[in-house]
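Quick one:
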Amino acid sequence: MRAHADKLFINGKIYSMEAEGLCYEALAVKDGKIAFIGDNNSAKAGFDADEIIDLGGKVMLPGLGDAHLHFFAYCQTFTTVDLGGAKSKAEALERLKAKVAETPEGEWIRGNNFDQSKWDDCEDEIPTRHWLDEASKTHPIVIKRVCLHTGVANTLALEKAGIVTGYDFGDGGVVELESGGHPNGILREQATKIFDDLIPDPTKIPDVKTELMNKALAEASSVGLTAIHTYAADIWKYTENFDDYLKLDHEGKLPLRVSIYLDTLYNKPYLTKREMENPYLKVRYGGYKIFSDGSLGSRSAKLFEPYSDAADTDGLLVQTQDELNEKMLTAYEMGLQPAVHCIGDKGLDCVLTAVEYTLKKSREHGMTAEEQANRDPFRIIHAQMANPDLIERMSKLPLIVDIQPIFLATDLHWIEERVGAERAAHSYQWKTYIEKGLRLLGGSDCPVESFSPWHGIYAAVTRKDLDGFPKTGYHPEEKVSVYDALCMFTKNIPYGTGQEDYLGTLEVGKFADMVVIDRNIFEIAEDDILNIKVEYTYLAGKEVYRQV
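Output:
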């Protein structure tokens, strides 16, 4: 007797991603889950389907994910001046002036995504209030660097915030001062949040928020994303509201799965086995976000030794080792998965010390080895710089690493100047990580970079920028295979939230989240990965995107 399926896909090249090279012709979907994967003849003989879809030789893959982004923050960027892509300081200034021209005097202007390392008409230095004053002295202006760890305010904005001569922010942040003690407009780390309470946020208007979220979600589906792990960041007032996503889901407007990570302690709701196995449950909580240090681009990532291009600083720890230890332990013992940002080598050292401390103390407090083994792994976010000793320590701990391969496409142009050739060689070591047994989850840190997973896969495989430079790739010995790069954005993503039994590969019983692409990623030239287009995206077997 033939079984019933909701959809039957035939004549495809369906890569299950269970293992490299596994490819099938047909796949059946029933009640949001995969009911069959195999050859055409078996599929046709075994199933009657409401809908038969002939893939015509097209490639189908598991739905892709982004293990680390700030989704609602991306929505907020639609309301600001986008300085990303500006090739010069002059071009960035012109974008701000254009906004000034259409904005009544006295109203706030916000900018985002500036990256002074890409400006070809000036030195690689963060601009100051004096530059922003050229855009306007009658509008308070605040812009944030693409890494989000540094902001710049013009003179009027400083005055409105009460940032005066001799201002001292205190622990966790820096307000830079000029030689005379007056603020120069540059704010680093937690000091950037000073303006978040002052500047009106258009996204607090419900209809505006919904419109922006729908726009961003449609974009995510168009590049094949079926799962995102999105992070709140109180340091920048980047909120993530569970109810916002749930409302969209109830209205039938949520085309992907959302796991929300908060940076405040909370009691995570327990999911029953039935809920975990429900392919239509799309919104859930993830874990607890903690910061260790800053970013390389703003020279606030914490290093063992000073920066090569700024010998007066070795970066900034957002909190002390003791504070990090206790914060991680508290979260872990509350049942939350600690997810910790670290970029510099010293920042990573502090995080590993905290993980080791947490495992030891929780055992002393009565947690058994079996209980620890059944917990979601610790998440280390970025881990861009790691010497051999740090990698060895990572390999011995129950952790996963959220990496952003697309970072290299930007950073390769200045990383050696920033930290020197030796330390640069100990950065972005993805192949070495894999060889040491570390599981890598791919992300974008959007809005820092585009959330297109194809950009990340391309960067991991080629180690080039988006213009194809350098020709042989930056430190090509660290290139990873197409399969391993694709695993970062498919198979490995669910390990971040304990969903590996339900997502990540195309296997019978798993949720039917799939994408169909316009070319075979395993057969094309590596540079062509950047040109891949998604033709269809499916979530729980339902079509949520179709290329027009």
